[in-house]
Request: fold
Amino acid sequence: NKNNGYKNKMGTLSDTTAIIIASIEKDKLGAVVDASNTVESLFNIPKENMIGDKINSIMPSFIAKNHDFFLEKYLKSSSHQRLDRKINSYGKVQGSDYLIELEINLKLYPHLDKGVNIMAYMRQINADDKLFVVRTDGHLVGTSAKMVEMGSDNNLNFKNTNVLERYNEFD
Reply:
């Protein structure tokens, strides 16, 4: 039974992986319909709190603000039946400004009871890397916990930092 394989997979994930199933039906676009228990260890949010919320709640704002547009574009495209992709992106740790780098495998997941959905198998990658994301004007929009640790060791404040002004070697 395919559903048993899915339930088994949901229960045996490590702390650095999670599965989230989100709706792509027009009236529930992006709503989380199910998730593995490991979303709490990865994103610091209990599974129960995610169900019904939009998937973009675990994305940094620079990705989240366009996510619904990408879902709508996918639904309108002629290739919407052929979803089997692997992408690298970022997630947001709830209750902090920290980013995590993710490898995400996306698959179309039709379900009789829960409608047409996308299953995202997310795995944290490069957990020990120091990561910061900068807008093209040089302003910092997100950092990893490791980068913040480095900053606190060196008395650096990354909040509201213009990296281009602070570090001339980027010019």
About this structure: Confidence is low (pLDDT under 50) at residues 1-8.
